[in-house]
Amino acid sequence: MRFFAWLRHWINTAVAAATRTDFYRRLDERKPGEAVAHLALLSVFLWTLPFVIVFFVDASRATKSLMEGLRVHVPAGTIFEMKKGAFSNTLSEPLVFGDKEFKVIVNNASSTLALQEGESGLIVSASGVLQRDPLREQKMSFASAPDFRWTRENMLESIARWTPLALFLGAILMSIAVFGAIWIGFLLSVALHGFVLWLALKIGKRTWPWKRALVASAYAATGPIALNALLSAAGLNLSVISNIWYWLILIWIAYDAITRSAPAPGKGGGDAQAEKAVDRSSGGQ
């Protein structure tokens, strides 16, 4: 139950950061560690988990299509071989199987086939594997692949035995890689935007401690990150819209901090009591 209470609290915080301007008038209550953790959760729920789900669906579908294709289309006794990073087989023609949604092509040495425009699937060539779907295209090389020599029967047996473990380990590795890349990208972006916010407030003679500017920048990224995730899931490359929204939030934070009260005395302008009194008089609490 504690987990769900914590999750509900985090969701409420994220919604407030994305929709309520008065949220940014009480940031003296929040620490940089909370902001960093907030970005980590955004990267998990909005990017890493969806990516892993897509990975599982695509990998499971590809494995099923591969096994069905091997059973139906590959003659008994066909040999598949990997030697020094080069894949070869004894097929007389390229092997094609799958459906309209996902197609698998295994090329041979004498001729090759490719996916048509807009088609999703896998292409296995002598040098590597090309995976394509509506959102991305990924190439995997055989340069470091271990040597092997399999018959059709050996391959079917190995795929059935090792696929569950391979999918599990692959999902873990992909989760770690995607989370790390996304989170680090968020942190770098927030640090840059936080510095710009701190500098703007300093120029406007409403200096904030740099930690508070960093926290504000982190929470201000909530809505833009969610919007960018939705646009990417829809296959729309419109990250410029999220960036504009992000800058508009930061501009509002700076403008509000500069105009609604005089510069606070003391190091970093941290007169919290005076600031809260102004919030109450303006209905910000």
Task: Set down the secondary structure blueprint.
Layout: H1 2-19, H2 32-73, E1 79-83, E2 86-89, E3 95-98, E4 103-106, E5 121-124, E6 128-132, E7 137-141, E8 148-151, H3 152-203, H4 210-220, H5 222-233, H6 239-259, H7 272-281
Q: Summed up, what is this model?
A:
58% of the residues lie in helices and 12% in strands.
Overall mean pLDDT stands at 85
Structural class: alpha+beta
| Strand percent estimate | 5-15%
- Runs in which pLDDT lies below 50 for 5 or more consecutive residues are 263-285
Spatial ordering of strands, largest sheet: 3-4-5-6-7
- Overall shape: it is elongated
The biggest sheet, with number of strands, parallel, antiparallel or mixed sense and barrel status, is: 5 strands, mixed
What is Rg?
A: 27 Å
- The number of strands is 8
Order of helices and strands: HHEEEEEEEEHHHHH
The residue fraction in helices comes out at: 55-70%
